[in-house]
Amino acid sequence: MIFQGKQTLLATMKMSERSKRVAGVLEEKIPLLLRQHLSPNNVGFVTVTAIEVAGDLGVADVFVRSIGGPKDFLKNIQKITPKIVYEVSQQIALRRPMQIRFKLDNSVLATKKIKDLL
Fold this sequence. Notes:
- The protein is built from 5 helices and 5 strands; from the N terminus they run E-E-H-H-E-E-H-H-E-H.
- The protein is α/β, with parallel strands linked by helices and 118 residues long.
- It has a single domain (2-117), classed as GMP Synthetase, Chain A, domain 3 (2-Layer Sandwich), CATH 3.30.300.
- Strands 1, 2, 3, 4 and 5 form a 5-stranded mixed sheet that branches.
- Helix 1 packs across helix 4.
- The protein is flat and about 45 Å long.
């Protein structure tokens, strides 16, 4: 099961207004595309937690987290990345196709480590 919610955050890196607009559109499109192309058995409950878009709109880093899925769920997502890139390029008019990279969101683990140290 893929979840799309308003808790998805645009990453905190400094992005131009245009990059923020594209990231906002990706925030809506990518969870829907993941739901279309993936089985819950392959990835579990996936949440898109943040999106960073480069200033030239050439690369988008999509941070994801999974609950109840296999530890290698990111490999299953990366297998369908070309389909996601194709469909995003059909829906967003850009000069060239955007490279989309899915990355594991480690913020929960980092927070736990900090709490353990304190």
